[in-house]
Amino acid sequence: MTGRAGLAGTVYFAVVFAIGFVLGTVRVLFLAPALGEGIATLIELPAMLAASWFVCGWCVGRFGVPPAPGARATMGGAAFGMLMAVEAMLSILVFGRTPLGHIARYAEIGPALGLAAQIAFAAFPLLRR
Fold first, then answer.
1. pLDDT-derived band of residue 129, with 50, 70 and 90 as boundaries?
2. Closest Cα to residue 17, out of 40, 51, 43?
3. How would you write the chain as a 3-class SS string?
4. d(Cα 126, Cα 47) in Å, to the nearest integer?
5. Contact, 79 vs 65, CB < 8 A?
6. Is the entire prediction scored with pTM above 0.85?
7. CA angle at residue 62 from 75 to 81, to 5 degrees?
8. Going by C-beta distance under 8 Å and a sequence separation of 6 or more, which residues neighbour residue 19?
9. Rounded Cα–Cα distance for residues 19 and 56 (Å)
10. Between the CA of residue 48 and those of 26, 42, 69, what are the distances in Å?
11. How does pLDDT run across 46-60, given as a tens digit for each residue?
């Protein structure tokens, strides 16, 4: 059970991260300079949440993740952990932030909204039927 849930979480993370990378590039390069980071994030979030919900359902079915809360929490937790780790690595390596600087960004509106969506992303496996 844990193996399937972990694999599903890995694929869930990878697909949603790829979608988020594309949409995030559009947000950072085009929307945020014109509208501000908070508004740009609010525009991106519905698409990311919808994509996450769809990909989550596909992964649950494709990998046969049982509806047991433990299996679903494993899937969501694995995906969330990978997402947070990769986001921190990119923040530090690409944007030159310190680890504390990365964490401090969550006090800003755009990153705080993004974190709320990432928590929803982690909860979706528990919510999907």
1. confident
2. 51
3. CHHHHHHHHHHHHHHHHHHHHHHHHHHHHHHHHHHCHHHHHHHHHHHHHHHHHHHHHHHHHHCCCCCCHHHHHHHHHHHHHHHHHHHHHHHHHCCCCCHHHHHHHHHCHHHHHHHHHHHHHHHHHHHCC
4. 20
5. no
6. yes
7. 20
8. 48, 51, 55
9. 13
10. 13, 10, 24
11. 999 999 999 999 999
- Tokens 């844990």, residue located: 2
Q: Which two tokens stand for residue 7?
A: 């694999």
Question: Rounded to an integer, what distance in angstroms lies between the CA atom of residue 55 and that of residue 14?
Answer: 10
